[in-house]
Amino acid sequence: MSTESPAIEIRDLVRRYGRTDAVNGLSMTIQPGRCYGFFGRNGAGKTTTIKCLLNLLRPSAGQVRVFGLDPAKQEVAVKSRIAYVPDQVGFYPWMTVREALQYAASFRSRWNTDTERLLLDRFRLPLGHKTSHLSKGQRTQLALIGAICPEPDMLVLDEPTSGLDPIVRREFIQTVIGAYQEGAPGTRTVFVSTHLISEFEGLIDDFTIIDNGRDVLTLDADTARARYRKIYARFPSPPVGLALEGARLLHQHGREFQFVVNGNADAVKARLAAHSPEVMETESLTLEEIFVSTLQTSGATA
Amino acid sequence: MVFELNYKSAKPVYLQLVDQVKASVASGAARSGDPLPSIRPLAEELRVNRNTVAKAYTELENQGVIETLAGKGCFITNQPSPLRKEARLKLVTQELDDAVIAAFHLQIDRAEFLRLAGDRFESFTKRRDRALQD
Question: Between chains, do B13 and A204 touch, taking CB under 8 Å as contact?
Fold first, then answer.
C-alpha cells in the first residue's frame, strides 16, 4: 500500500438537519487514481456527504478528510485540488459563456486553455451567449469545462447527468474519461454520485451504496459482478423440498425459478442441480441490479 | 477490431478486452503488425475507465500478444510466448480441465469430447488461413 493520503476518507460521518439524520454513521475511503461511484436513492444522504467534503456543511459528528486535509480548517488547500460539478449548475446570468469561463479561471492557479478550446469545440457552446440562455445540458457542459480545465486532482460529480438527454450524457462521460483522466493517467480521481448507475458502469472501479445515511455495501466493481449472480432454473415439475438458504428468490412461476446469490453461486447451483433442472443459466448482476438487490434486501431487514 | 463488453459477465472488464484481442488473433481477424486502437479513443468509445484499457494492454503485452512501440502505439505481434513449454502446457491444462468438467456434467464422453476439440482447433486454423488469403 502506498503511504499517500486517501483522496477521500470519511469516518463515522453524521450530519443532522434539525432532528433528521441526513447522514448517520457513513464511512468510506477513496484511493487516489480511482473512479469511485457513490450510489444511493434520492434522499439517501449523497449530496449532504459531498457538501461536507467541500465545507459547504459542517459535520455534526465524525471525520472527513480530503487528501489528508480537513476541509473545515484547510478549505482553500482542499478546494484548490478538487473541482465540483453539482446537479443544479448555477452561473451569474448576465455573464456570457466566455466571461463565465474567465471568471472560473480567475480562481485557479492553473487553467488548460487547450482543453478549454477542445471542449468548447466538442460541445459547440456559443461563447457569446448569456449563460441564462443556455439549456440545462449546455449549462452542465459549461460546468464540466470549468471543472476540467484547472486540472484538479479530483473531480467530484453530484448527479451530473440527471435530466440530460442521452447524447449529452454520453459526451459527458466520454469527456471525463478522455479530457480529464487521460491528462494524468492513474492519478486523477473521480468521485461520482449518481443513481443513473448503468451509464457509469464502465467507469466505476469501486463503489459504495448509501442508504438512510449509512454505507450498506462497498466493493470493487469486478468483484461485485463476480459475486452477485442471477440463477435461472427450470425443472420438469415443481421440485419438492428445494433448500433455498443463501439464495434470494426473485421469481417463481410454477416450475421456473430465479434466484440472486452473493458469493455462493456454486453451492446454490449444486443444490439446484440435485433436483435435475431442465435448464439452468447463470449471469452476473450489473452494478445497477446489485444496487437494487442490495436495497431490497436491506429494506427487508430494516 | 470491434470490442463488446458485457456487464452481465462475471469476467472482469479488462479480461474481456484481453480475451477479445486474443480471440481476434487466434481467428485471424487481427494479424501480426495490426495496430490496436489507442487507449484514450477506445476508452471513450466503450465508455470505460481509461485505466481498464491500460490494464488490458499491459496484460496483453505481458502475455506477448501485443507490443508497444514508443510513440507509435500498440501492435499485434507474432513473437513466440516467452514462457517455457511446461509453463505453457500447464496454462492450457487449466483451461482444458474446465472443459472436461463441463463435459462430464453434460454427459459428453471422451470420444465426443476429443472430436469436438479437434473440430474447434480446425475451425480456428481455417479461419486464420481464410483471413490470410483475403
Answer: no
What fold, for A226-301?
Alpha-Beta Plaits (3.30.70)
pLDDT in tens, A139-150: 999 999 999 999
In angstroms, what separates the C-alpha of B104 from chain A's closest C-alpha? 14
Residues of A with CB under 8 A from a CB of B: 33, 35, 170, 173-174, 177-178, 181-182, 185-186, 198-199, 201-205, 221-222, 225-226, 229, 273, 283-287
From the list B8, B46, B105, the residue facing A202 with the nearest CB is B46
How far is it, in rounded angstroms, from Cα A229 to Cα A219?
15
Q: Which of B38, B39, B44 to mutate to test the interface with A (most CBs of A within 10 A)?
A: B44
For A115, A134, A138, B70, the CA distances from A143, given in Å and listed in that order, are 14, 12, 9, 36
List chain A domain ranges. Answer: 8-212, 226-301
Distance from CA of B51 to the nearest CA of A (A): 7
B17 & B65 share domain: yes
Q: What is this structure's pTM?
A: 0.89
Domain that holds residue B126: 85-133
- Please give the biggest Cα pair distance in chain B: 53
User: Are B48 and A203 inside 8 Å of each other by CB?
Assistant: yes
Tell me the three state secondary structure of residue B8: coil
What digits encode the pLDDT tens for the residues A161-203?
888 889 999 999 999 988 898 888 888 999 999 988 999 999 9
Spatial strand order in the sheet of A214-220: A82-85, A154-158, A189-194, A35-40, A206-211, A214-220
| Fold designation for A8-212 | Rossmann fold (3.40.50)
ipTM summary value:
0.84
